[in-house]
Specification:
about 300 residues, alpha+beta, eight-stranded antiparallel beta sheet, 17 strands
Amino acid sequence: MIYQARLRIKSMKVKPISPVVFGNIAKTIFDIMPEGEARQQIYKLIECKTLISDILPVDALAKEKIVSMINEAEENNEFAGAADTDSLREKKHIHRAWRYRPAPVIKEGFIETVRRRTMVDRESGKAAEKILFNDTEKWFDRDTLYSLYIAVQDEKIIPLLDLVLRVIEQTGFGTDNSTGAGQLEFIRENGRVLVRDQKMEEMFVRSSSDTCVNIASTILTEEVIKENVFVRYCVERYDSRNPRLTKPPYFYLPAGNLVIPRDSGPFIAEYRVREKTAFIYNCIFPVRAGKEGMSCDSPISRCI
């Protein structure tokens, strides 16, 4: 079963990629529940095979773009296979041309701005002298509609996720909420944030021998690379922002990468420093579309 949440965003300090979305969900669960119960609920999400997409603009998931990305992958495979020639020079030329073709990426839909900020002295509550730093904010178009997809095997966990998203709407997404970052607004349907999307279920596959578009940013880990075949992709680095815990950066494949999924996960690891714990979540959210395209009323081509 797949549920969709539609929302509008003002600004954020973090990228709303799949691991970050789960991190905010986990943090909120710990805020509203005792620690022991919160931990149980988080691992219940994993047991229910919960897959979480990036938060992406609706129009970035238009059916034409999904189909064109998959068709490009098939053409790239044919192009790479054309290197079956005896000429080493020709092989190098063909491979180099194939390698440097742009990798598919779904645009994230925000503008980054940098502003100068001061550091607050926690003892005096005043701005610390001679300490300035550059701070990056991500500003979003308030008129743009964004989508978050969540795939689950047991719909009993949906009420908890719906509640958590409502709390995040009130408290903010990501870090630096006290400065106004992390503001978002969910579009409700019959009073609910998460609404089942049966048309998306028709295109979703947890595993396949065909090329799919991954609408979740996936961290490069041994278990993910070992179990899945990534056809076309680019790699980016993410530095986590957590005021309570310093976590190592990680490299990930942005949403829009092309993959032959054999194990979509989810995968989870606990990162612990002294008494502080953070969860590092990872998954693949594959969507398949044939060359003939999808129906015109497809949920990822719908504009509201």
